[in-house]
Give the backbone structure.
Amino acid sequence: MAITPNEVRWIARELARLDLSDAEVEDLARDLTKIVGYVDQLQEAKTDGVEPLAHPLELSNVFRPDNPQPSLPVDQALANAPLRKGDFYAVPGVFE
């Protein structure tokens, strides 16, 4: 399936909000046609009897256990804060 320059222009303008030159449109049309051709080759692969999978490796929980630990003391947590108001970070107001 060939991607036409008009299709590239439509994708660039409507979906990506890009302004492409004619040379860029021609290059992208050629590149996208090659990509679609490769995907078409994948359609020919025999997958009868192959179970769908979410990951190629057998994985179980790969996360460390979530063990509660004490938090930093407030003074240590706010030691590098540029502005501080009591036990909180202070930031400039953004509302009028």
About this structure: The mean pLDDT is 91. The chain has three helices and two strands. Residues 5-42 form one domain. Helices lie at 5-15, 22-43, 74-77.
